[in-house]
Design goal:
By secondary structure, the chain is an alpha/beta fold. The chain has 2 domains: 148 residues, Glucose Oxidase, domain 1 (3-Layer(bba) Sandwich), CATH 3.50.30.20; 209 residues, Rossmann fold. 25% of the residues lie in helices and 31% in strands. It is built from 10 helices and 19 strands. It is globular, with a radius of gyration of 21 Å. This is Carbamoyl phosphate synthase small chain. It catalyses: L-glutamine + H2O = L-glutamate + NH4(+); hydrogencarbonate + L-glutamine + 2 ATP + H2O = carbamoyl phosphate + L-glutamate + 2 ADP + phosphate + 2 H(+).
């Protein structure tokens, strides 16, 4: 079953289809991770995007029940050099082809992913379509040009209703902008009493839950498309300790008066070095974002840069100078990826405990 990948600049790749026969349009991005494809395709932050995996062999250990970052993938499609037909792993339950067919997601294999990645690096992310080989490319190009990219991705992937994940430790309200299950897992591992709430939950509704801390999750798209969250953050800052990851980091910056901007092709992979400015230590991190906090915009705020990307110098961490709040652009829950930054969850627990002691002492 041949398929074609058509980019909005007119570039056409011909390959072998797998998964669903449906056609799809999305923003074409690339991820440099060598492993963890199951976590990547189930990461809600890829909502609206067609993901290119630069590692040449994908699907060789199959799909299992345990490594999902969400129940229903939001990715629009997958592009690989080679999709393994016969995975070999004791946990394997489905092939990549079987799983994508079951979830109605199209994929294309057998194309030059190195060439595609170089195009994206040179020109930036592009809209693209995966479709039948019989489809007229000119028709597809016209459709690409008149089809805008979605701006409500967070609404699509956030939980519709609040729900608890009980524990006996600190009460944490986890705001779901497209949460990876790894974040919830790390909080549960520390026995936090977690309440997961939708992206549009107000400051008053969160404070009524009497949290010891607030966690802002990752999520897809442009942070400026989520004004409800910015308003909420202005209402809770300084009242409850706060920890933000990825999109949560960007929303925190906007709420504090900084600005965000779209990157040329973003950071997506599990091998990104990040420097802690306080210690000089470099951690290898997992990342997935197409927007960044504009460094110049931080100067007139109460924010301080705590981490930077070694490769391009972009902002990777912030803390508030007056309030107990810090955020990072990368993923300390590391699914997939290294666990160098996992200690940030312990830092969050310590910050909640310190804040509670200070409140008690001043009561």
């Amino acid at each position: 079953m041949k398929k074609q990948l058509i980019l909005e600049d007119g570039t056409i790749f011909i390959g072998k289809g797998f998964g669903s026969d449906t056609e799809t349009i999305g923003e074409v991005v690339f991820n440099t991770g060598m492993t963890g494809y199951q976590e990547i395709i189930s990461d809600p932050s890829y909502c609206g995007q067609i993901v290119t995996l630069t590692y040449p062999l994908i699907g060789n250990y199959g799909i299992n029940r345990d490594d999902f970052e969400s129940i229903n993938p939001a990715v629009k499609g997958l592009i690989v050099k080679e999709a393994a037909d016969f995975p070999s792993n004791w946990r394997n339950e489905y092939t990549l082809d079987e799983y994508f067919d079951m979830k109605k997601i199209p994929g294309i294999a057998g194309i030059d992913t190195r060439k595609l990645t170089r195009i994206i690096r040179q020109y930036g992310t592009l809209k693209g379509a995966i479709c039948s080989i019989e489809k007229d490319p000119n028709e597809v190009l016209e459709q690409l040009r008149r089809t805008p990219l979605s701006t409500n991705q967070v609404k699509q992937v956030s939980t519709k209703n609040a729900y608890p994940s009980p524990g006996r430790g600190k009460r944490v309200v986890l705001v779901d902008f497209g949460m990876k299950h790894g974040i919830l897992r790390e909080l549960n591992h520390r026995d936090c009493d977690v309440v997961v709430v939708p992206y549009h939950t107000t400051a008053d509704e969160i404070l009524q839950l009497r949290p010891d801390g607030i966690m802002l999750s990752n999520g897809p798209g442009d942070p400026k498309d989520v004004p409800e969250a910015i308003d909420m953050l202005k209402g809770v800052l300084g009242r409850v300790p706060l920890f933000g990851i990825c999109l949560g980091h960007q929303l925190f910056a906007l709420a504090c008066g900084a600005n965000t901007e779209k990157m040329k092709f973003g950071h997506r992979g599990s091998n990104h070095p990040v420097k802690d400015l306080a210690t000089g230590k470099v951690a290898i991190t997992s990342q997935n974002h197409g927007y960044t906090v504009e460094e110049e915009s931080i100067k007139n705020t109460k924010l301080e840069i705590t981490h930077i990307a070694v490769n391009d110098g972009t902002v990777e961490g912030l803390k508030h100078l007056d309030y107990p709040a810090f955020t990072v652009q990368y993923h300390p829950e590391a699914s997939p990826g290294p666990e160098d930054a996992n200690g940030l969850f312990n830092q969050f627990i310590d910050m909640m405990e310190k804040h509670k002691q200070e409140v008690t002492a001043n009561a």
